[in-house]
């Protein structure tokens, strides 16, 4: 348990006393917090009638609270010698799980082995496990193999390889991805910089489309023309299937084209990669919402249907005055179309990466101050966080929103953050 609190009733069998502490008698402020938020939660799930029953016995509730770093119980440091003696060899004997090998002759083997040594043949388990960089890549791009090709002088082949795994190597690897492969690069263990894969990503605009397998005769409808839908359609096409893309909007790309700020990804890069895809996948239907009858027709005309509709419904806070606020998705879409308007003072509720994008765009559109608030230490990171901080955004936490008013954002502690755009 690294943070937060757990309210519970009933029996608990075990927890890490070094990381958390148990309160069997709830303090008054914690009890009030629990009652207030329990009502909100039960109302959200349509179970308001359970409140009286749950809140009837205060003494039945217990609270598990994560210890602060200063409260952590000190743990005795176990030396390697003690670990080997007590744990490694304590149960399994000398040598532990490799005890049967510990008594082997370790003298060098001659160039021409004799006796029993003639029966032993060396075996290497090459590529038995994925390299850390490839294992960290959500798309599974073999990063190590690309650099191996470059070492062999096969630069074009290294650039082309990514298109076998994603139709967006330039958009994603070059610009949008937080570069999980670089974060997992083992060069950093010896104080070396990770190999910069963004260079390969940006070079992928000139990548050669890989050869397609023979046609299978299978037809697959893909509902959704965003990043996931287009990626599915691309893989289906590479495998020899006929892919049909259906998108309710008037353009492909989803959030890549209608939400993510221009400062994060140049529009011509996304447009180029979408054009490369549509040159090979010809059946694309835009601007037609999917009805029940049309879906039934798709079932009859296709062997399979893939639903990749995306997350288009934003979460909204159940607080007074929420109608005065814009969702980040609405704001970013308006900003991408250059029709968004902001005031001089902006407050962003939620300081994740999307909130940082909204803050950066607010400054671009003329805001003088932007404050991001969060209930915990912001989870934002990478380029989005750097851009927001460089623009002048201010981060506040922990802050709990009570209401959105004409004056700005009212917090549960009584503080009001002035804002004319929320």
Estimate percent helicity.
Answer: 25-40%
Q: Structural class, judged by helices and strands?
A: alpha/beta
**Unreliable segments of 5+ consecutive residues:** none
Q: Widest sheet: strand order?
A: 6-5-4-7
Corresponding CATH superfamily of the largest domain: FAD/NAD(P)-binding domain
For the record, what CATH class of the largest domain applies?
A: Alpha Beta
How would you sum up the major sheet?
A: 4 strands, parallel
Tell me the number of helical segments per DSSP (H or I, 4 or more residues long).
16
Through-space gap between termini: 33 Å
CATH architecture of the largest domain: 3-Layer(bba) Sandwich
Q: Quaternary arrangement of the chains shown? A: single chain
Mean pLDDT: 88
How large is the share of residues in beta strands? 5-15%
Describe this protein's structure:
The chain has 422 residues and is an alpha/beta fold. It has helices at residues 28-44, 51-55, 80-88, 132-136, 143-151, 155-161, 169-176, 180-183, 198-203, 227-238, 255-258, 267-278, 292-301, 328-336, 353-364, 382-391; strands at 5-9, 20-23, 61-66, 219-223, 242-247, 284-286, 304-307, 345-349, 369-373, 394-396, 401-404, 408-411, 416-418. The protein has four domains: 5-71, no CATH class; 132-206, Alpha-helical ferredoxin (Fumarate Reductase Iron-sulfur Protein, Chain B, domain 2, Orthogonal Bundle); 219-307, FAD/NAD(P)-binding domain; 322-418, FAD/NAD(P)-binding domain (3-Layer(bba) Sandwich). The strands form four sheets. A four-stranded parallel beta sheet has the order 6-5-4-7, sandwiched between helices. A three-stranded antiparallel beta sheet has the order 1-3-2, with no helix packed on it. Strand 9 (369-373), helix 16 (382-391) and strand 10 (394-396) form a beta-alpha-beta unit. Helix 5 (143-151) packs antiparallel against helix 6 (155-161) and helix 15 (353-364) packs parallel to helix 16 (382-391).
């Amino acid at each position: 348990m690294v943070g937060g609190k757990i309210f519970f009733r009933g029996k608990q069998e075990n927890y890490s006393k070094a990381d958390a502490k148990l309160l069997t008698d709830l303090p008054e402020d914690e009890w009030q917090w629990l009652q207030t938020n329990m009502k909100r939660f039960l109302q959200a799930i349509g179970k308001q009638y359970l409140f009286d029953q749950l809140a009837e016995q205060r003494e039945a509730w217990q609270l598990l609270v994560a210890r602060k770093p200063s409260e952590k119980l000190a743990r005795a440091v176990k030396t390697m010698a003690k670990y080997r003696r007590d744990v490694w060899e304590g149960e399994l004997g000398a040598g532990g799980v490799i005890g049967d090998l510990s008594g082997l002759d370790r003298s060098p083997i001659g160039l021409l082995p004799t006796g029993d040594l003639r029966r032993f043949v060396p075996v290497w388990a090459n590529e038995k496990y994925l390299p850390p960089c490839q294992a960290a890549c959500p798309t599974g791009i073999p990063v190590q193999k690309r650099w191996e090709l470059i070492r062999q002088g096969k630069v074009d082949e290294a650039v082309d390889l990514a298109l076998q795994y994603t139709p967006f190597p330039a958009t994603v690897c070059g610009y949008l991805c937080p570069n999980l492969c670089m974060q997992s690069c083992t060069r950093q263990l010896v104080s070396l910089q990770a190999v910069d894969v963004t260079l390969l990503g940006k070079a992928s605009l000139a990548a050669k489309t890989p050869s397609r397998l023979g046609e299978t005769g299978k037809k697959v409808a893909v509902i959704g023309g965003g990043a996931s839908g287009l990626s599915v359609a691309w893989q289906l096409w590479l495998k020899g299937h006929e892919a049909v893309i259906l998108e309710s909007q008037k353009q492909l790309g989803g959030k890549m084209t209608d939400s993510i700020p221009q400062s994060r990804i140049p529009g011509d890069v996304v447009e180029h990669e979408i054009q490369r895809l549509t040159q090979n996948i010809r059946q694309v239907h835009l601007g037609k919402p999917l009805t029940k009858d049309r879906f039934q027709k798709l079932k009859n005309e296709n062997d399979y249907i893939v639903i990749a509709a995306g997350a288009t419904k934003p979460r909204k806070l159940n607080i007074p005055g929420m109608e005065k606020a814009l969702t980040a998705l609405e704001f970013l879409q308006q900003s991408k179309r250059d029709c968004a308007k902001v005031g001089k003072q902006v407050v962003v509720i939620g300081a994740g990466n999307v909130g940082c994008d909204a803050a950066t765009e607010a400054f671009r559109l003329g805001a003088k101050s932007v404050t991001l608030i969060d209930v915990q230490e912001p989870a934002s990171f990478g380029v989005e966080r750097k851009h927001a901080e460089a623009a002048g955004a201010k981060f506040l936490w922990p802050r709990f929103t009570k209401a959105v008013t004409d004056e700005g954002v009212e917090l549960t502690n009584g503080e009001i953050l002035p804002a004319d755009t929320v």
